[in-house]
Amino acid sequence: MSCCNAQKKAHHSEDVKKSLQSRLKRIEGQLRGIRKMIEEDTYCDDVLNQIASAQSALNGTALYLLEHHVRQCVSDQIKNGKTDVIAEVIKTIKRLSK
Fold this sequence. Notes:
76% of the residues lie in helices and 0% in strands. The chain has a single domain (14-96), classed as Metal-sensitive repressor, helix protomer (Methane Monooxygenase Hydroxylase, Chain G, domain 1), CATH 1.20.58.1000. It has helices at 14-39, 44-79, 85-96. It has 98 residues and is mainly alpha-helical. The mean pLDDT is 92. The two termini are 32 Å apart.
């Protein structure tokens, strides 16, 4: 089954969904931990290290999703003659790399 249809709705496999959900749940836990660190007046450098860790986890999740998107959604659209998706992917990569 293709990933993205004409309405630009994703159709992820159950494995991809589970992986994304698991990653995001861990990130949510990290963010709750950071909030608690702030509430408890934890040393700034320790909080900053945890923020960097959460950012890294979020970036990894984005790259995982981008890889899936290119392998499935983008590939399917190109096969169907919709090459304008290439500009969309380039724009997304630029946004992610900021």
